[in-house]
Amino acid sequence: VLEPVLPAPAEEQNGTDSAKAPKVNCEERNATGIDRFTLQILNVSQDLMEFLNPNSSDCTLVLFYTPWCRFSASLAPHFNSLPRAFPTLRFLALDASQHSSLSTRFGTVAVPNILLFQGAKPMARFNHTDRTLETLKDFIFNQTGIEAKSDVAVTEEDWEGPLPSVLTKGIDWLLLFSVLFLAAFVMYATIRTDSIRWLIPGQEHEHQE
């Protein structure tokens, strides 16, 4: 399931405006002494809000994914390389099927979904179907004004993890829930329509004829 894509002219205009004045003024973390910049994946018992400081202006890029989504799998190596490109920012990922309350809260039913947080507040959503390292770097630069390291590229290690690039078998519970919700809504609307038809004077007689 894909997120709706913004019109190209609007995206180009937003990119131009962002280059002049960043939309999000991020407080860059001190990367001194950190040898390896990696993506952190939250497990089912970890709460995203525990990793986001509401009293801080630092920025975190959060990926909502599912291990059986092929779009999430193709995005994985590119997202794995981002922490090396932006060592002063934080990068988190979580399985949306294991954190359904967060998916509902931030409107991330479709996966993969990428949100830029400042503190604990979502500031921007990545709305491109071309999910590559370059488009991700452009998105971060347009939103924050922080430039990526030029020597960073997707490597073989990025294909291996920490975010899995190989699909795992499973049921897409988010899609199943969406289908069931739609079916229930259609059934409810049909029943309501039939009930109203019988309550309107003359409708019963016309139906019998």
Write the layout of secondary structure elements.
Blueprint: H1 8-20, E1 40-42, E2 59-65, H2 70-85, E3 90-95, H3 100-105, E4 113-118, E5 121-125, H4 133-144, H5 156-160, H6 173-199, H7 203-208
Parallel strand pairs: 1-3, 2-3
Antiparallel strand pairs: 2-4, 4-5
Pfam families: Thioredoxin (PF00085)
InterPro entries: Thioredoxin-like_sf, Thioredoxin_domain, TXNDC15
Domain Thioredoxin: 2-145
Tell me about this structure.
InterPro entries: Thioredoxin-like_sf (IPR036249), Thioredoxin_domain (IPR013766), TXNDC15 (IPR042418). The chain crosses the membrane at residues 173-191. Pfam families: Thioredoxin. Residues 1-21 are annotated as: Disordered. The chain has helices at residues 8-20, 70-85, 100-105, 133-144, 156-160, 173-199, 203-208, and strands spanning 40-42, 59-65, 90-95, 113-118, 121-125. It is α/β, with parallel strands linked by helices. Helix 2 (70-85) links the parallel strand 2 (59-65) and strand 3. The termini are far apart. Residues 1-19 have low confidence and may be disordered.
